[in-house]
Design brief:
8 helices; alpha/beta; 2 domains; 41% helix; Nucleotidyltransferase, domain 5
Amino acid sequence: MSGGWPDFTHVATWSAIVYVAFVVDVFSRAIVGWSAATSKRAKLVLDALDMALWHRDRAGTPAGPGLVHHSDAGSQYTSFAFTAQLLDAGIDASIGTAGDALDNALVESQIGLYKTELIKPRKPWHGLADVELATAERVDWFNNQRLHTAIGDIPPHEHETNSDPGALQCRRYWGANYTNGGKECDEYPFATTYEGAAEHDYDPEVRKFNFSVKPIPKDDNRADGNLLQGFYGNNRVIDGDYDGFIVKTVT
């Protein structure tokens, strides 16, 4: 999640007005957090943010430096409690300009789809419980099945799955422009396939993508790769269940 775009809307029901808040990942367009309540106090958007943080942590891509949370200037998003939660998570806050209809267009378009594809066709709504259930079903469908033109006519979850794990980590920790100056993302200082991408498959207690990343010049990265490939070819010894090397690269 290189950037999170939040907002909330309302749904008229027979028993009360229900407010529904969303957090959208700008990279994949996935809805990573949402909440519903009959009050639009700060807790509404805090619960959506908490779900987004939990969702990303569970996926092995936790929030960290370089992640930006962009919202409008609504009182819920400028509240002390919400700002403190962003600071605790290491997320940079960004507030849009007042009166700018296009500033939060990404998440507002998501809300427009939510209203058009779910809320209007299935009204009337009885109350909070049926709005919550329908929203949960719709978010799961949207993330895993609905095609999105902005990411190549595939669902958000597939877009994330198809993306290189290392590149996702570089976007998270080094920003979307980490490729500036002819750089590319690589495990740093070094990680074997097992240490980096596959360890979680063998030990579920280990966090997914358990490696560090750093943007480095493409030529240097490929030269190191060729050197290591030759080393593997000449020295690789497989003995039992474990196979490893201690490598020191000297420049």
